[in-house]
């Protein structure tokens, strides 16, 4: 969040200045990626649906591409800098209440009572779209357009200041939030009005003159006012109506320094309770001695990066966190790995906040316990490649629904032997892309290198990717210790082969979705029966089928298809503006969102595991260095993005329409498809629709899709692959008879409805 009320203060004091954009032509602007993305989400995209459907905003790509085109048209050369590892926090997990679940629950209640606009407004304001979940998509778009970006070791603010003050001037101006003025920077662009051809900016010297403060006092004022790294000073933390930036300014003028101010109130109960004196000192040091990545590849405190003779404290780890080797920050900076697991190891805590569905089902909570061993091994791939100090570092997982319970992550006990794939084995792929499925399919020739000291074995990009994916497959039980496919590995191979042999098959690779579905079957989340808490009602979904077994068939098929990314229209209008009317389709489904939340737990876990495996291979020198293919490696890592539930809603509404179309004559038999009063929740039996009628319905109703009927057929082909994989698991008795029967009976029921 910005410095509290500072932006209001700058407007009131007329400190915000405006200039034409042509001033920035042909110069390189360093852009705080999070500030830019936040403004894009709030001012341009304005999409409430991800809070109700999961996934990324459908207009994200169109909005970014429009922004990049506008920057190019104005001859502005951007360098996007995103923040990396978070600062070390001393407060207890979940010490402050998360307001988002209550807002989401309120939105669903409004939606269930047909108050759709009010529900959308509440979803929009719920703050449920998390920036870290968007970054892999953002990086992909920036790479495709050849736009430079990096991740800072810690905050983008310090990195941007370093780049601007560097003798070689990698950037000439900074576009960021006004908080960056706490750092040694003279000016900052706070908004780019690309459509209007203007930009707004602030001058720090002018602000200091207006306040009558020096730079050190200004820093103290900002910390006491409150921003991302510090809460508002408790004696001032009253309602928004009572708080003013000037009140903080007056305190500093009275006591001369921020430290004097907090010491003066040291006996205040709230100051004692929040340990504010320590919080203030830590925030101040985090600004003064922030760590940045230099052009030489070293991570050093900002003062040292600017002036080698600068004095810095020896206990930076107390307010920044324990350091990693510089090599780790380089891979973080290039977007090869994310900061999530690094944060877990440094902080000693893996926090699991409430998901979009609010995590009320027992299935979701059980799943968190089921993936904990895999998350622990993920942590082990990181810790065992670092200094001995990290090998036995205590790390716990804490869940939102039991915030006082710590679940130990004994990462020192995990087996992290990599499966290295050599170049000879890759040649057997015969040009095929390296995926989970192709790694499994070539196991007769893909063998792991057994030498523990196989230094620099992995040279080609494909050998690095294949070794990473093979190691992941071993960790999740798809490859055994003899490097042969397990029952689940065989199931994935057979499911993939079924899809590949389909005459209607496209060039799409389904191996990620197949693997995800099989894990969800193993964990008991992909099933035909309802979750412990059910939400969908005939009030919000008039065609809802409630009679079993048909309801179970539709439930299982819709859940399965919701794992498939839909092909949505470009969210750009003919005049170049980004559309905000994004989802046009059937009724939203909180039941499908609950399943999506389960799927997201698994995809996040698999993504983190993949990143830590490849990082481990780099740090243990299995990968040849130096190399320049980090972007290519990053693009080939799986689970970079999550699907929303759009395909599930499409399948659910199509199938419900097939069995519950229109009222028909009394006495007609509707029980064959499980329709009728109990199924529809209406008075009078309903008639089944033909395939042509259902196709017409989805084409008219699901305008968000490029071709909803074609997407349905894509989804049904994916279903075929899952059914084939489950058959394989059934033969090996890896799934229960109930699970096997559910897929078999749903498939039999579905066949006549697909044509």
Automatic annotation (TrEMBL):
**Family (UniProt):** Belongs to the XPG/RAD2 endonuclease family.
Family annotation (SUPFAM superfamilies): PIN domain-like
Signal peptide boundaries = none
Query: Which UniProt keywords are given for this protein, alphabetically ordered?
Result: Translation regulation
Indicate the segments forming the Post-transcriptional regulator MKT1 C-terminal domain, all copies: 472-751
Highest taxon above the source species: Eukaryota
Question: XPG N-terminal domain spans which residues?
Answer: 12-91
Offer one example of a GO biological process linked to this entry.
regulation of translation
- Please report the name of this protein according to its UniProt entry: Uncharacterized protein
To which species is this protein native?
A: Tieghemiomyces parasiticus
Q: Which stretches make up the Post-transcriptional regulator MKT1 N-terminal domain?
A: 313-401
Name the Gene Ontology molecular function terms of this record: mRNA 3'-UTR binding; nuclease activity
